[in-house]
Write a structure and sequence with these properties.
This protein starts with 9 loop residues before the first strand and ends with a helix. α1 (28-39) packs across α2 (41-63). With 205 residues, it is α/β, with parallel strands linked by helices. The protein is 49% helix and 14% strand. Strands 3-2-4-1-5 form a 5-stranded parallel sheet. It has one domain. Keywords: Plasmid.
Length: 205
């Protein structure tokens, strides 16, 4: 696709992400065990390596951008509207176990980007409790009833994310949305917001 011409309209740069083990917090152990039960230790290690390379590519793409970050806002999958969003990001970025996702966010904040709480805390806690409680059988397979509940919960989260972006992204600003691949937020985004990929946005710089 050709370069994207930015105007005074609102622009949202969508960055599909892959969560690392570090990003999953208290749910990481349960997810790791379920993954290894289904696919084995070798597949788990290969997955971790692929995720590491993925984030290195994202980091390189942002390092190459020529943008006035004071006119940008950051939206992050899993970051609740809570009043101390920046502290969450800083703590995770500075933690020895912190993933590249939050290190990139912290650097963007340092360059002037505004961090926005993106998700409903109650919905996030509900999903976390579902993951930890293990809505699966003895083989780690999620049952159909649980899958349906999780799908509806994810859809509700997506509507909330879309509404947050619409409420906070101002005219002439650029938003960077870091979002897991399972989400389906794009169709729910306001038609007044121009949506581009990170690759398209990079070409416009």
């Amino acid at each position: 696709m050709g370069a994207v011409k930015l105007t005074k309209s609102r622009t949202l740069v969508c960055i599909p992400i892959v969560h690392s083990e570090d990003d999953m917090g208290s749910a990481s152990n349960a997810l790791r065990q379920a993954y290894m039960r289904q696919k084995g230790l070798e597949a788990w290690e290969q997955s971790r390596l692929a995720i590491k390379h993925f984030w290195a590519d994202i980091d390189s793409a942002f390092s190459a951008l020529d943008v006035n970050f004071h006119r940008t806002r950051i939206y992050q999958d899993g970051l609740p509207v809570c009043g101390f969003e920046a502290k969450i990001v800083r703590d995770l970025a500075e933690s020895p176990a912190g993933g590249m996702n939050y290190k990139i966010l912290a650097r963007l904040i340092d360059m002037g980007a505004k961090l926005e709480g993106t998700e409903d805390l109650k919905l996030l806690l509900k999903e976390r409790d579902m993951l930890i409680s293990g809505n699966s059988d003895s083989e780690g397979n999620v049952n159909s009833a649980s899958a349906s509940v999780k799908s509806k919960l994810l859809d509700t989260r997506d509507y909330f994310i879309a509404s947050r972006i619409d409420a906070t992204l101002q005219s002439g600003e650029i938003g960077f949305l870091f979002l897991g691949a399972l989400h389906n937020v794009i169709p729910k985004i306001s038609a007044t917001i121009k949506i581009v990929s990170l690759e398209e946005f990079s070409l416009s710089n």
